[in-house]
Please model this.
Amino acid sequence: MKIKKINFTLALVTAALLFASCKLGLLNVGLGDKVDILPPGITIVPHDGVQNGGYVHTTVTVNGKVSDDVGVSSVTWMFADEATGDPSPTGTATLDAEKTNWSFVLDTQNPAWSANLIADGEKSFTITVTDEAGKTTETRMLLIFDNTAPTGT
Model:
C-alpha cells in the first residue's frame, strides 16, 4: 500500500511539474515562434527614369523594398549586357537599419567594367534578396544605358 501511495504522489508531482513548465515556458520544446516559412519579397521602386525599360546615364540610384517573415540578410545585384551576355561583377546593396529598404548607386560609366558593360544599350539586371535562413528571391529589370550624346547633322 505504501508503494502505491509513493507512485501516486510521484505521478501527481510529475504531472504538476510538466503542466507548470508548459504554462510558464520553463521547457521550450518545439520550433518556437521564429521559424522561417516564407521566402523573402523584393520590389524595385521606380523613380527618375530608373524603371523597367528606362533610359539611364552617368550615375543613378536604384532602390526598392524588401520583406521577410523572420529577417532579411542581404540584397545583391548584377547585370548583363543584352547584346554580348557579358556579366557585371556582383554588387551588394545597402540595407537600412530596419532592413526593409535597399539601394545602390549605379555608375553606368564605371571604368573598372569592360567596354561591353558600359556601352550604350540594354542591360538586364537581377536583384536578389536573401533572408536569414538562406532563402532567396530574385526580381529583374531592364535598363538602357544611354551615355552617348546625339550628334547633329
In short: The two ends are 114 Å apart (CA to CA). The first strand starts at residue 41 and ends at 44.
